[in-house]
Design brief:
heterodimer; A: 228 residues; Rossmann fold; 5-stranded antiparallel sheet; globular; B: 232 residues; mainly alpha; MetI-like fold; 11 helices; 79% helix
Chain lengths: 228, 232
């Protein structure tokens, strides 16, 4: 379960977002510049909200009133960035095991094998990020986040830089992750088809404000005709 | 060519290499730390630190040498303390030549490393942070390796500067054959003596060869590093 109730100001954008989602996949849906990535950064601890609190699966990550603010490295949140952000000086294998090694988890066990197989990563292990396609990079970034054993997975438009076929390939992998690995996911997108395919819940965000929240079908049905 | 060197010339070459290597390696940790402070730090006195680091670059080398003599000489406040506490003596020793070379090369080293740290993609550091690396591990595992080509460049610049240092060295530790006579001061000595031209020319050629070799080596290393990261 994810509980968010924050206020935050970035530049000219005044953010005010509160929702509580039980869904396996919650989509943050809205136009560019609405504050979706900022919200992810607040959850990951890369930024601190001006006020309010964020809790994930019962643990409070940040609560300004109670002076709680876990540093990013202690939040155990997997973050798949829009631009993958693989470490260019490390091999794919080293990238994948980076967070797992830091978390002192076993580097060669059934869990590692399972995630490598799930994302078809075995053929890539010896390469360096510079030798990967856009889709391969995103698969490695997803694997890297999952192998650190996070309690929540954040994905910031992981398909934005990919073309049609590659998108479909990653979407298939994302569905596999959703269906086999039991951690909640927050998925940022402004593409309706992706959200319909992946998400159970949806939080519509416009100009920093939550405009609608609920089950994906209910919200999208109500909003059709108004947006997109 | 080496066979033709007199013992004095040979000693100058060996001493220069030792002084330049020690100066470069010993100042590297401080160089990285100061470069990091200047690249990332937001603190009171940052501009003052920046100016202090650059001072040897703009002061006449003789002035730097004299200031080193005042501070690190046996009667200088730091020099006296170091001798009393650790038994380290700088004045008129090869260690003093290394100190002078390190101080003179420091601005060049810091500048190169600072630029490479500033060029490190902060978004990669954020990614490391979300994967559980704190600031120290992020620096050691991500920022430092990414800045390696610049660190290498800084080391080569400092080494080359150390090989060529003259003014501060001769002022601080004089020109004692076998103890503080480096290639440049030896060349100077030969040019001042009648019939020293051949010896001076031999040392000049060696200086050129050492400097070019250092440059080629660093280019080769840097290209290897960059190729790995860019996939070229």
């Amino acid at each position: 379960m994810i509980e968010i109730d924050i206020r935050h100001r970035v530049g000219a954008l005044e953010m005010r977002v509160a929702f509580r989602s039980e869904g396996p996949v919650t989509a943050l849906f809205g136009a560019s510049g609405a504050g979706k990535t900022t919200l992810l950064n607040l959850i990951a601890g890369l930024a601190t909200p001006d006020s309010g609190r964020i809790a994930v699966v019962g643990e409070t990550l940040v609560d300004r009133e109670k002076n709680i603010n876990l540093p990013s490295r202690k939040r155990r949140i997997g973050y798949v960035f829009q631009d993958a952000r693989l470490f260019p000086h490390l091999t794919v294998r080293q990238n994948l095991l980076f967070g797992r090694w830091l978390a002192r988890l076993p580097l060669a066990d059934a869990e590692v094998e399972r995630i490598l197989a799930l994302l078809d990563l075995a053929p890539l292990l010896k390469r360096r990020p510079a030798h990967l396609s856009g889709g391969e990079k995103q698969r490695v970034a997803l694997g890297r986040a999952l192998l650190a054993s996070p309690r929540l997975l954040l994905m910031d438009e992981p398909l934005a830089s990919l073309d049609g076929d590659r998108k479909d390939d990653i979407l298939t992998h994302l569905e596999a992750v959703r269906d086999t690995i039991g951690i909640p996911i927050i998925y940022v997108s402004h593409a309706r088809d992706e959200v319909e395919r992946l998400a159970s819940h949806i939080a519509m965000i416009g100009k920093g404000e939550l405009t609608a929240f609920g089950h994906v079908n209910d919200v999208l049905r109500k909003s059709s005709g108004q947006e997109h | 060519m080496f066979a033709a060197l007199s013992p004095e010339e040979w000693a100058a070459l060996q001493l220069s290499l030792k002084v330049a290597l020690v100066a470069t390696v010993a100042s590297l940790p401080a160089g990285i730390a100061v470069a990091l402070l200047l690249a990332r730090g937001r603190f009171w006195g940052r501009s003052a630190l920046d100016a202090l680091v650059h001072l040897p670059l703009i002061l006449p080398p003789v002035v730097t040498g004299y200031l080193l003599l005042l501070a690190f000489g046996r009667k200088g406040p730091i020099g006296a303390w170091l001798e009393a506490t650790f038994g380290i003596v700088f004045s008129f020793r090869w260690t003093g030549a290394a100190l002078a070379a390190a101080v003179m090369g420091f601005p060049l080293m810091v500048r190169a490393i600072r630029l490479s740290i500033e060029a490190v993609d902060r978004r990669l550091e954020q990614a490391a942070d979300t994967l559980g690396a704190g600031p120290v591990l992020t620096f050691l595992l991500v920022s430092l390796p990414l800045a390696l080509p610049g660190i290498l460049a800084g080391m080569v610049l400092a080494f080359a500067k150390a090989m060529g240092e003259f003014g501060a060295t001769i002022t601080f530790v004089a020109n004692i054959p076998g103890e503080t006579q480096t290639l440049p001061t030896a060349i100077y000595t030969f040019t001042q003596a009648p019939g020293g031209d051949a010896a001076a020319m031999r040392l000049v050629l060696i200086s050129v060869a050492v400097s070019v070799a250092a440059l080629v080596l660093s280019e080769w290393l840097a290209r290897g590093l960059t190729r790995r990261m860019d996939g070229r």
